[in-house]
Amino acid sequence: xxxxxxxxxxxxxxxxxxxxxxxxxxxxxxxxxxxxxxxxxxxxxxxxxxxxxxxxxxxxxxxxxxxxxxxxxxxxxxxxxxxxxxxxxxxxxxxxxxxxxxxxxxxxxxxxxxxxxxxxxxxxxxxxxxxxxxxxxxxxxxxxxxxxxxxxxxxxxxxxxxxxxxxxxxxxxxxxxxxxxxxxxxxxxxxxxxxxxxxxxxxxxxxxxxxxxxxxxxxxxxxxxxxxxxxxxxxxxxxxxxxxxxxxxxxxxxxxxxxxxxxxxxxxxxxxxxxxxxxxxxxxxxxxxxxxx
Length: 293
Known about the structure:
The structure is a single chain. The protein is an alpha/beta fold. It has a single domain, classed as CATH 3.20.20.150. The chain has 11 helices and 10 strands. An 8-stranded parallel barrel has the order 1-2-3-4-5-6-7-10, surrounded by 4 helices.
């Protein structure tokens, strides 16, 4: 690293496993400047937050001196691979984006399902149509739906994004997913996806053996994706293992340098999906990133 990092540090509130309000307090306590919050179900489901509740939540977060780096709008299942399920999912995704804007962020991260190799097939077409509609909607709000990296190599994801008419659907870059699942190189991935990266996760992991990405992220006609399933795989570690920052295969010196080289100014948001002591791991992760400042 030649230059010190200037990016703000975020934390996924849900990683603490103690609820939104407590998680927000904890995020401030561990030294984060911003937070990412799941907004799919429960108290953060857009349907459960009226205008007054949204104003109150935003002012509570402001009062803690925090910003929202992004919302997580990951609806699980098959992402947008199933054309029949997409209208409902696209509609819900739009409502999550509306909520994000009202809470002061212009990024919603999501998984869209593995982009298939067959460009002429029904699954590719279904994903393309959903992402085109979401991208245009996001663009109309000056916002982004950010696809999390990992299910497919960066070059393949870029070729899919390049088929869309706007960059309203962009990228939430997660280096650990790449090393754990596809064995892709995060540093090259940053360069490949440089025009699309609007948010990042800071996470580390190891690949223990080659794994079919469908076993991790699901696929239409194969199995559904759930975060619980991924966390279980990442902690039990037959195929891959999520580990505390600096203990895995992500070369953070080179990764952070790559983000600098493309002029990335957004958040570095810590995600910890496994482990018995998330708070301890997250505190260490904040300190780890601060060493680059």
